[in-house]
Amino acid sequence: MPLxxxxxLHEPPDQRTKMLETPxxxxxxxxxxxxxxxxxxxxxxxxxxxxxxxxxxxxxxGAVGIVFSIMSIIQAVGFTVGMGSGSIAARLMGQGNHRDxxxxxxxxxxMALVLGLLLAALGLGNLGSLIWALGSTETIYPYAxxxxxxxxxxxxxxVLSFTLNNLLRWxxxxxxxxxxxxxxxxxxxxxxxxxxxxxxxxxxxxAIATLLSQCVSLCILASFFLLKKSDLRVSPSCISRSxxxxxxxxxxxxxxxxxxxxxxxxxxxxxxNAKIYGDAAVAALAIVTKxxxxxxxxxxxxxxxxxxxxxxxxxxxxxxxxxxAVKLSVKTCTIILxxxxxxxxxxxPQIVTLFRDDLMVIDIGTRAFRYQCFTLPLGAVxxxxxxxxxxxxxxxxxxxxxxxxxxxxxxxxxxxxxxLGLTGLELTQAVSDLAAFLISGTIMVHYFLREFGKERV
Length: 457
Fold this sequence. Notes:
Blueprint: H1 13-21, H2 24-54, H3 58-94, H4 98-125, H5 127-133, H6 141-153, H7 155-170, H8 174-198, H9 203-226, H10 243-274, H11 279-315, H12 319-346, H13 348-355, H14 359-375, H15 379-391, H16 395-420, H17 422-452
Helix pairs in contact: 2-3, 2-8, 2-9, 2-11, 3-4, 3-6, 3-7, 3-10, 3-11, 4-7, 5-6, 6-9, 7-8, 7-9, 8-9, 10-16, 11-12, 11-14, 11-15, 12-14, 12-15, 13-14, 14-17, 15-16, 15-17, 16-17
């Protein structure tokens, strides 16, 4: 089966008019709202577990931070397959080539299932060693084992959910994707206290609730394909035997893999250095990480609405609209993050206390939270620089910037903790964000001025 048919069919005039003529602000907002909700729901899965598990003990709270690295890897694999196949399938559908688009979607589902099963087998087969490798302490270890066991059992379900979610989003059916994930997210928040406290399953109950919620999300997302609400057909008969097809999915999804994968490695490095100072440090930094991940999900969701506008207009030579989209997105999200930073700085102790009423956790968490608030407004440039190059097809720059923030973090966490102790750990993410901002901003501005300063509009 050929990977691409070279014939090119034009998109319907109404779609072209919409993407090229609709005012940029309203177009981006319309596309961004569903993706913002989708990203926030994904973060809520982790936030709900963190909140309810933290009510058990400081060690249990720390366990969620330890297992966060596993969740990041699962999400990395799901987004790699989903983003890679979805972006190619969308382009093929735009060409009118539905046969190959269906082949990519169907093959991606098989690929997600196989990779999910492989992750589960590897993780469960080496669970004890894995938990130690992620930076667990002796007191956190039993909680992390109970929590991670069920999360790893759910690997195939989670990878498939993330893949189907992205396949729907790339078709422009973000509202369906949001409904599937959103239902699971709400169910997770309802089931967490039931399984943890009423059924007295402890931290294992939180993991079981997450697993069941993901199963429900998967069933809903799969139903959209089975009921033909998707323009992409997923069927065993459409699965490709071409190795090139699977390699092309991986290549297209690689920036997503590196972005999430490096997050997992940086979390491991943070936990390894934090455990020196006890469970309270691990728990506090885990709480801060989850809250800031939730805040950043708003920007990432906005960016996913901004990307198709950028790519479509760049391809059509409408550089005036490209410039407007970039400036509007960076400015809007910088304002949003600045407001979040001010509120977060003022109420840092109260936010940390919501998760764990432990004086040491509150003390460490408050300082780390406030340090990160100083650099939080820089997050708009960090996010959009990566998405800017990804939308323009500059995969090398996009991949470099995708790993820049947490890639800088890993050496810094060892250096600063060695030089400044616990204060160094609390400062690391803020210092990393500042360094990544300088790198990302410089690369983006240089490219923007060089390419977009030309009279090509």
